[in-house]
Design goal:
Distance between the termini of chain A: 69 Å
Order of helices and strands of chain A: HEEEEEHEHEE
Shape of chain A: elongated
Strand order of the largest sheet of chain B: 4-3-2-5-6
Strand content of chain B: 15-25%
CATH class of the domain at 47-133 in chain A: Alpha Beta
Largest sheet of chain A: 5 strands, mixed
Number of helices of chain B: 3
Number of strands of chain B: 6
CATH topology of the domain at 56-130 in chain B: Nucleotidyltransferase, domain 5
Oligomer: heterodimer
Largest sheet of chain B: 5 strands, mixed
Chain lengths: ~140, ~130
């Protein structure tokens, strides 16, 4: 019986284009990445269906209301009577400012309504009730 | 004179580790990435001190109490899942209708957003947010 040695077949996966694919993915992630600027822990936002995305991030200002009735502007604790002053200054600097109200789903409406009244005093009239998408 | 031929050095940039570097960057962006997360229900507040007289027939009052129960025009209790259809019907009858949304001081924000979402979904664009003290 003649056992012939089989010819060696190269079994390597071609990796030549690996770098190209990775570059493509890298560029995608670099372009779509937005870094979280402010974060207040423990705030769970409600869900809604009819929501819109805020495009221009540089015009967005954040106001947080926690379940334990605390108000944070960006990520710093603030009093209700400071809200109008702070947002008035910001409104003067950026007339296209939008205030994103990031309120906890358990927060009382009375406090949020008071915050809105303060924003009206500061002439910060464009607001957005931040929510997560339903489902 | 014996001229010695110089050895040619290859002027290539070594690209062997390129994939590794790119992978490292890719992993960094994959981990840190958060897609555009600023979304919500947009509203335009009225300027301070502005009050307009509106005919009673053009207002639809919605009250949300602490338990999330909805009272429409102070007479009819309506479940949340029927609210959209009800407002759509009212808007079809009167396109000047303004929805005045009012919630109790202690109503949880979630209940208020649920109602506001339904109102927005019904296609109403004139929405007034009344403060609880009014």
């Amino acid at each position: 019986m003649n056992f012939r040695k089989k010819g060696n077949v190269a079994q390597s996966i071609p990796t030549g284009s690996m770098a190209d694919i990775t570059f493509l993915l890298l560029i995608f992630f670099m372009v779509s990445t937005v870094f979280v600027r402010f974060r207040v822990s423990g705030i769970i936002m409600p869900k809604a269906e009819k929501i819109e995305e805020l495009k221009k991030r540089r015009h967005i200002n954040y106001l947080w209301v926690s379940a334990d009735r605390k108000i944070y502007i960006d990520d710093k604790l603030a009093d209700l009577d400071q809200v109008a002053g702070i947002f008035y200054d910001r409104r003067v600097k950026d007339p296209r400012m939008v205030v994103s109200l990031k309120c906890d789903y358990r927060a009382p409406y009375g406090l949020i309504s008071s915050v809105m009244e303060e924003l009206r005093k500061a002439d910060a009239l464009r607001i957005n009730f931040a929510t997560n998408r339903e489902g | 004179m014996a001229l010695q031929r110089r050895e040619k050095s290859s002027p290539e940039i070594p690209t062997g580790s390129m994939a590794d570097i790119v992978f490292l960057l890719l992993v960094f962006f994959l981990v840190t990435t958060t897609m555009n997360q600023d979304k919500g229900i947009g509203m335009h507040l009225p300027p301070p001190g502005e009050s307009k007289k509106i005919q009673k027939k053009n207002i639809c009052n919605l009250w949300v109490n602490v338990n999330g129960e909805i009272l429409i025009n102070l007479e009819q209790n309506i479940p949340l899942n029927q609210l959209r259809a009800d407002i759509e019907q009212r808007l079809a009858q009167n396109d000047k209708l303004i929805i005045s949304l009012k919630a109790d001081e202690e109503t949880p924000y979630e209940k208020f957003i649920d109602v506001l979402d339904e109102v927005k979904l019904s296609g109403a664009d004139k929405i007034s947010l009344a403060s609880p003290s009014e």
